[in-house]
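Slack export, channel: ligand-projects

TW: morning all. Re-posting the request from yesterday since it got buried. We need the structure predicted with the small molecule present, not the apo form. The ligand is pyridoxal-5'-phosphate; the SMILES is in the block with the sequence. No rush, but it would help planning for next week.
GE: picking it up
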Amino acid sequence: MNIIEFGEKTRRDHYLMDQDVVYVNHGSYGPCPSFVYEELRRLRLEQERNPDRWFRTLKYTLYGDCVRAAARRLDCNFEQITLVDNATVGVNAILKSPLPMFKSTSGGTILCTNLAYGAVLFTIEETAKQRGMKVRMINIQLPITDKQAFIQQFENELNKGDVEDIRLAVIDHITSATAILLPIDELTDLFHAHGIPVLVDGAHGPGQVYPYLSLNKLKCDFYVGTFHKWMYAARGCSFLFVRDTTIANQIQPANTSWGYRPAPVHLNLMTHFHLQFFHQGTRDESALLTLPKAIEFADSLAGGFDRIYQYNSNLSEQAKALLEQRWNTQGKDLVPSEMHSPYLKMIQLPDLEEYKKTNEDALRLLNHLIEHHKLISIILCVNNELYVRIATQIYNRIEDYIVLADKIDQFRKK
Ligand SMILES: Cc1ncc(COP(=O)(O)O)c(C=O)c1O
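GE: finished. pasting the full token output, ligand included:
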């Protein structure tokens, strides 16, 4: 198999997006390569041709292979990882399961930060309501100039006291709305020193952090990540990692189904942890089962993770420099460069004529660019300034960010 040339040729020959759309937002709903999409189609056809065979036997064999592939790629044991549709499914399962850390007479507290993903914050809020727990939020102040100052904000919060009441800390690996790479091992050490277990929301971690994400080498207790963002799988392919396998088997998906008490015929090597999440009635699991093809795409056609990382991270730096120069917004970083996400960057926008620096106007501009300019980007309001979060993926080229700069220039204050 020949290695593909990244940029325009990859986009034209290996992706299915409309050719007239400029796509600099892979981080949200980024498309998968046609090589993987074809596999999704093939799996669905296979299912359709003989549904009973699929649901009763075939899918279990395919699923076992997928979990093994996931464990190999992320460097953990088969028993520590299960596949879930998306990151929020994994977060819900951890928060809502009857785990030892939640079993206490007092209500307890869930600790999180204001940088967390919106749907994850909703899950924390709802769980706390259901369990009679409190939510304690660390309001991280941005910008920060060095990593230690960032960690200090966590230390300051813990020094305020009432730490014994905290049952779980939820932190991001890479934040969504601010594209910050968190020092998760240092933070986990800090929480563990206070006896607090840690769940990392790693929706953006796998395939983006360098070197390869090794779950074995991390220190956190739980890690939720996606394969459909930066690892080329079809949308609806994610995972949940639990370090302690005795705890893994106590975790329950938010949706109780047949996996709750699986038929012995399905037990071939799979644990309760696997089957609870996999045997979810007549659900179409085809996207989950695209993982082996996604790994094959990255390793063979795309030339491996190092080549992908080189391309995406270099292009990300180049695009950031270009946009900042065009808009004269250099030096407006929210965090030091060691905490920049490799493939996602935040660039402050110049003052715009028709768009105020509010969340509402950020969304209005984002939708306007999609609907009227065929430009897919994400505009956010942070610290009362508008930012664009740019993503780089192997189908992007520097010209995509020049189009972005030109489009935004049309709205600039004269
Ligand atoms: C940090 C973070 N967490 C969670 C999610 C939710 O992922 P999903 O849509 O796969 O549930 C996202 C999605 O972009 C995210 O960026």
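GE: first-pass observations. Residues 28, 86-88, 117, 119-120, 172, 176, 201, 203-204, 226, 238 surround pyridoxal-5'-phosphate (CB under 6 Å). The mean pLDDT is 95.
TW: perfect, thank you
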